[in-house]
Design brief:
42 residues; mainly alpha; 50% helix
Length: 42
């Protein structure tokens, strides 16, 4: 795989982000994620 081989996937990967979510997240980690995302809405 090299740049340009998958233009649709590359387009989407530059316009999306993944929020980390899994069962082992601590409450502290969840709070950090929430507070960090709130900053984008300011």
């Amino acid at each position: 795989y090299k740049e340009g081989d998958l233009p649709n996937a590359e387009y989407l990967s530059h316009r999306t982000f993944a929020i980390p979510m899994f069962a082992e997240l601590t409450d502290e980690e969840k709070e950090y994620i929430v507070e960090t995302l709130k900053k984008f809405g300011e």
